[in-house]
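Input (structure):
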């Protein structure tokens, strides 16, 4: 927990770490997070500033079974891909993804400058993540990390 509840996100380190297994990790290395909620000591939901460099993506297209997600565009032009296709989102636009709807989504940066997103999601236990476009399925573990499996159930 920080000494003071207020802080400047720019003071936090960025990380492009991902727990995706090797076949899918490389595509996410142009996505960087500042973990605001973690820094503030939040336990029930996460808040990140996600920076997507040109040519990058926020994640592989995915849907959560138990966790809600909300994304607000701070800067740049983001391409939102969902089950229904693509939509361009600019600064001030937002999107919400209720748990259990199967609405698979991701954000792409096809521009020549960074995209900044404010990403919020809860930390409901028992969450599973469906990736319709790749051979991967995620399960939230009791320690809060995700473990990834192939769609046939074999672990990575």
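Output (sequence):
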């Amino acid at each position: 927990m920080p000494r003071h509840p207020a802080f400047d996100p720019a003071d936090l380190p960025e990380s492009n770490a991902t727990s995706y297994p090797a076949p899918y990790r490389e595509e996410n290395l142009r996505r960087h997070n500042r973990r605001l909620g973690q820094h503030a000591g939040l336990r029930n939901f996460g808040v990140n500033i996600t920076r997507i460099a040109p040519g990058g993506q926020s994640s592989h297209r995915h849907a959560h079974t138990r966790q809600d997600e909300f994304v607000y565009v701070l800067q740049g032009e983001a391409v939102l891909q969902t089950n229904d296709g693509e939509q361009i989102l600019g600064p001030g636009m937002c999107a919400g993804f209720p748990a259990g709807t199967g609405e698979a989504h991701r954000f792409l940066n096809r521009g020549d400058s960074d995209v900044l997103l404010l990403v919020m999601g809860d930390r409901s236990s028992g969450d599973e993540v469906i990736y319709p476009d790749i051979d991967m399925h995620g399960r939230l573990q009791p320690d809060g990390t995700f473990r990834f499996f192939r769609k046939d159930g074999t672990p990575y």
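Notes: The mean pLDDT is 95. The two ends are 33 Å apart (CA to CA).
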